[in-house]
Task: structure prediction
Amino acid sequence: MKVAVIGSGNIGTDLMIKILRTSETLEMAAMVGIDPRSDGLARARRLGVPTTSDGVDGLIAMDGFADIGIVFDATSARAHMANDAKLAAHGKTMIDLTPAAIGPYVVPAVNLEQRLAAGEITNINMVTCGGQATIPIVAAVSRVAPVPYAEIVASIASKSAGPGTRANIDEFTETTAHAIEQVGGARRGKALIILNPAEPPLIMRDTVLCLVDAPSPDVQAEIRASIEQMVEVVASYVPGYRLKQDVQINPIPADQPVHTLAGSERATHQVSVFLEVEGAAHYLPAYAGNLDIMTSAAVAAAEAIAARADREVPA
Result:
C-alpha cells in the first residue's frame, strides 16, 4: 500500500526511513513538509521519495496522490486539525501521530484488531509516546483485576523533545490520561511527562502505577504473568521495549488514605512497573525511544490496515 508522511521533522523522517528499511507491505509515495530546506525533505529526495514543501495542498496536487491509501501525520495537534479537514474528502486513512485525537485511540498491542474489525480506520490516533509505552501495561493489569486508578510518568531525554513535542505538553497529558481510561481500562488515569536534561542523554523510561484489589497471591501472580506477556507483544514491533526490573506488587497500608478512589471502590495493593524504551536508531539516536515507539506503533498499525485491505480485495 502506498503511503505519505506529512511532517519532515524528526518523527516524520524517522517514520519514512523505518518504512523504507523495515516494511515489506508499505511503499513511501510522498514526503510532505513546509520548509524546503528541512533535512527530512532533503533525505527523502536523496532516497528517491517524491516530495513537496507546499504542505497538504502540495500533497493533493501531486501526481499519484489518488493511489495513496494511508497518510501519516507527524506535525502537531493544531496542524492535524487542518490537515484532516483537507484530506477527509479524498478517502484516505489518516494515522495521527499528534495528540489531536480526532479519531479513536489506537495502541496496537491492546485494541488495533478491535478497531479494524469495527471499521474505525478513517482516522486513528496513536495517542502519545508515553501512552504507547504505558497503556499496554495498564491494560495488562486491568484484564486481570479492576484498576480504579492508574498513573504514568514518562521521562524522556530533553534532546529528543523537538518543538512539536514541547508545544503539545498540555495535549500530551490530557490525551494520555484519557487513553489510560478508554484503552487501558482504568477508571481514572493521570499522566506526567518529564524532559530530562541529563548529559549524556538517557533513554526513555516510564513508570506505571496501578491501584488494584488483589489480596491473594494467585491474583498477583496472574497480574505479573499478564504484564510479562504484554511486554513481549509490544516488543514484537518495538524491539527496544523492556521491563527495567521485576514487577512490584505491594500492599497499601490500611491507614493510608487513597484519595483517588470513589466510595464503592477498593484497592489493597499498588502495582509498580518500570520500563525503558531504546530506539532502533534508524534516523534518531538510540536514546530517543519516545520517538521510536511512536513511529514503530504507527508502522504496525499501517501494516495491519494494509493486510486487512488486501484480504478484502475480491479475487
